[in-house]
Design goal:
Layout lengths: L1 H28 L2 H32 L8 H25 L1
Keywords: Membrane, Transmembrane, Transmembrane helix
């Protein structure tokens, strides 16, 4: 589960840069009509990653500095599920607001 979170963390970092570029200079790079389409596709996926990363931080706080916590996989699995649910709620809220 730790490997999954490491992969998700790097995807999140990459998407943060891409979303920043699209939000700041998207109309210059892609044109105004494509920028709206990219925002409608990219932002909901990014918000799912935001929810997952938020709960990853909560899981790391729960685990503390211990590398071999007896309930590590259980805590990671619970935080992953809560993170995806939070991300889907954020994405649905973004699409309908």
């Amino acid at each position: 589960m730790n490997t999954l979170f490491e992969i998700i963390k790097w995807i999140f970092f990459f998407l943060t840069v891409v979303v920043g570029i699209v939000l700041l200079r998207g109309s210059v790079i892609f044109g105004p009509e494509y920028q709206l389409l990219i925002k409608q596709i990219l932002m909901p996926g990014y918000l799912v990653f935001c929810g997952t990363m938020f709960w990853y931080i909560v899981a790391r706080i729960q685990l503390g500095y211990e590398e071999d916590h007896p309930h590590q996989n259980k805590i990671y699995a619970r935080s992953f599920i809560f993170g995806v649910v939070l991300g889907v709620i954020l994405a649905v809220g973004y699409m309908f607001i």
